[in-house]
Specification:
167 residues, mainly alpha, 3-stranded antiparallel β-sheet, 41% helix, elongated
Length: 167
């Protein structure tokens, strides 16, 4: 619809009434600037539902847990986890590309220990579905950076090690 059409359309609408399950659009008659008193003659009813204010997330469920018992990871912990995954991938790329030649060089640059570098780089090897769940905030509470570091190499075993049902 062109912006000029909106102006023309707006001059014909007298009122929009929002109900729980519908919108009622009342329009002016051809002869007058007022809407008819009879809503059936000059109104349009459109089925409608208010979109949810908060998008629901399908949290990955631990084995033998009910959906009502599981809460999503807190926002701050989720942000920390996603940042650590990004850092691990970046550091791995630095090593593979040759931008750094040794872990010691990376440690000096990042001002951290060899252990921290190794554990952070291990996050670069997480299963794509686990990373996606982390980014979308679908991991259950308690699965953060510490639990995901140094994962099993096989992606299917990563879910098992965490006690999660794969998607």
């Amino acid at each position: 619809m062109l912006s000029g059409d909106r102006g023309n359309l707006a001059q014909w609408i007298t009122e929009i009434v929002v109900h729980k399950d519908k919108l009622v659009v009342r329009v002016k008659s051809d002869n007058t600037d007022e809407a008819y008193d009879s809503p059936d003659d000059h109104s349009l009813t459109i089925p409608w539902q208010k979109p949810p204010s908060k998008r629901s997330r399908q949290i990955l469920l631990p084995h033998n847990a009910s959906r009502s018992d599981v809460r999503p990871e807190q926002l701050e912990r989720r942000a920390r986890l996603v940042s650590a995954i990004v850092r691990g991938r970046r550091w791995l790329d630095d090593v593979v590309s040759g931008r750094v030649t040794t872990v010691a060089e990376l440690c000096a640059r990042e001002k951290c220990s060899v252990r921290q570098v190794n554990m952070t780089i291990s996050l670069a090897f997480l299963a794509p579905n686990l990373i996606k769940a982390a980014v979308e905030g679908r991991l259950p509470r308690g699965i953060g950076v510490e639990r995901l570091r140094d994962p099993p190499t096989e992606w299917s075993r990563q879910f098992e090690a965490l006690g999660l049902n794969p998607e």
